[in-house]
Design a protein that fits this description.
It is a single chain. The protein has 181 residues and is α+β, with helices and mostly antiparallel strands. Helices cover 19% and strands 28% of the residues. The protein is built from five helices and eleven strands, in the order ααββββββββββααβα. The radius of gyration is 17 Å and the shape is globular.
Length: 181
Amino acid sequence: MVFAMEEADQTAPSVIDRYYTRWYKTDMKGKLCEDHCILQHSNRICLITLAESHPILQNGRKIKNINYKISDGCSRLNNKVSGKSKRGGQFLTEFAPLCRITCTDNMEYTIFSCIRGRLLEVNEDILKRPDLLLEKPSTEGYIAVILPKLEESKSITNGLLTREQYEDVVSKRTNPQQEPC
């Protein structure tokens, strides 16, 4: 009986795997290996995270700074939503920058929204604990939460890759003839 319970624990899907569909955007804005992951819940809400292959998550990099200030007039930290329809949230296009992350090797990466929708929140916890982004990128280390428009909720995945397509792209990158990420 104990063995059966342990076996069940090992095969049970995670909350992310159970309730979210993973979508990927690779080589964001033409930058090789800068891959993003979009976790889409059945209620339309999407979490923007780093894909496992993103350079920030490779080679033991450490994060020096995360900045949600996009320009002098725009900070994602100033985003305020209210009410059932989430009025007041900043509307984002798929190439809207969410934040800039600087690593200790001074490499800077811009994280984009990847989908159109209303910004519901940014993850302020990663400002205090940047290691969350490295240790738990799909859960506590998410970047932002976006709510696509109802009429666009079915079409937001156009141009995004499924898990299988993403793994195919990543496996081709590790081909010996190509430069690794």
